[in-house]
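Exercise 7.
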Amino acid sequence: MHVPTFLRWTAATLGLGVWMMVSVGAQDAAPATAGEEAVPTLGNLPDGKPEAKPDGKADAETDGKPDGKKLEDLEPEAPREPLKGPLSQEQLIRELTAVQSLQARQRYVDALQRLDEIERVNPSVADIYNIRGSILLAPNLRDFDRAEEQFRKAARLRPDMVAADFNLAELFFVKHDWATATKGFAQVMEKFPKLPESVRHLVIFKQVLCALKLDQPKVAEKLVEENFTFMDNTPAYYFSQAAMAFAADKVSKAQEWLAKAGTIFKQADNLAYLDSLMEARWVPNIGLPPVDDAAGGQP
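Solution. The predicted structure, written as tokens, is:
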């Protein structure tokens, strides 16, 4: 399945010192384990795009909506009592978890309305804006301007929030503004030098893709050589080799590297990397809107 990869809030970020890699429209992800290196595997990357079939395509009829329904056909969430704030940490975790559940079911209107309500009583919580930004980047919404505004607000409220900075760079990656995206990912690496390997490798991999899209194969090769090996605990090396093959129009070779990654690593470990190749349009996915690179990458 496919969606842009976004770092967004999990309950642990509100005080337990851990965070998680997830993506837009995520299915309910397993909680992370507390600890300094407690970033879960990249497998916790459920999504809000149509699920890809084996050939990389999705069902255009239902557009990936639950039970084959269109977004506008989904029933709104049942009315409930207005929140009375400010919310305690426990209440905030519960409310944001509920938002994530709505997002997981692609009930974006309900999720956004609930975020509005949480913002009303706890306006200074950066996670509200980070999650809202990720929802606004769902393929059937893709409101880039509003999403950027939300990510920037999250970063202002919490300058040490990795997710907001990553998401901002990812937004430009999704837009195919490769130059701005690679600068953003470089800033993430500079600002957060102690990222866990799973996240660090994904960020560098995205820099590799940006370099290739900017017709800078030597830069991409250097990034791979300096940061990845076939012995790593992530599939970054294999997917980087695939990306370089795609960029050189060696599709069969690229598919061989993808097959190797699929043999060595679990599907969950590969998902964020495969997603990135889909966003780069090297791996097809009918659920993604068309992008005109000649027009600056705007869908």
